[in-house]
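Morning run. Coffee first, then this:
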Amino acid sequence: MAVTMKGLLFIIPFVFCPSVLCGVAGLPRERKSLVKRVGGPTPRFQNFNEQNPASQARLQAIQNAFPDVKELAQQAIHNLVPYADVYRQYLPSQAPDWPQRAAGIYHEIIDFKSPLMIPPRDIEFGHKIVGITFTDEDFLLQEGEDHCGAGAEAYTKNVPKEEPNGPVVLIHICRDFLDAVASGQDLTERTFDQINVNGLRFGLGMDPPGSYTLKVTEDMAALATTIFHEFMHANIFSDVLFSGSPIPPAQQGPGGANIVDHQNLGVGRDGYGPYQARMLNRQHPELAKTHAEAYVWIAMEIVWTERLKSRLGIPAFQNGRLLPPNPLQDESSSSDSQMSQ
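And here it is:
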């Protein structure tokens, strides 16, 4: 995303990401990039210090999240038809072709030939992934913008294409946040497999005893969710959505970003999460097309519906779907810990 914030409300008049992050000129000084070419194309990694254990732990945490990132794209692509109703929860029904077009952004992230029977760990990224650079340097801090200090998890900057020698997209995952993930201090933001699915059951103790419900909840989020969100801000992926109908300049984000973070529209605390994304689609459907969280939670809801079907079973009365998200969902969760021991 341009900036990922949790628990921080921007009081600003804009309806997109509030800082000039996406597509802004002015790269940090060039440094040697670390590029790995194992198992297909990969992102680049820049300014991760090989002599610094903490920096290497951050790098490893990012790489460990990639199978989940691939699973999100894979499931969203292959479940376009059976989960068309989920797509419609986040994207406007007035645009009947939009789910099909939306699937295009997921196709840009992973190799097109990635059937469901291939485990996510064995899926290759698509060729455009080489235009992504993860950097361990908080480069916007050098430009006087302290987004990490203000509570961001990550931010993304699209680089003008006229700079052929630089990366097309820079992503920085904030060190404090990533250190907590890498060390295990942040018990809600590691990998999907480490999330305790029993902690996702709601209403335990209902009648009859032992029954429960399963709903869409931010407790399902992992580090991959943050990375996937940042990918939504990368124009190298989202250009495909708007190739036939470019977004008018007045509606683009700072620097010409296609997909942004719509905020302060009366849909929730800050526009993030499944509840806020669904509410934005109901109240401002045209904005949903350019809202990063819409594309994130389409994929998240599909992935977790499939995972919970096989791990717990979806209660029969839910008809194979998770219940809608609730803004007060954390108060009804059956467990405080979302991590398996």
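The domain at 17-331 is CATH 3.40.390.10 (Collagenase (Catalytic Domain)). Good start to the day.
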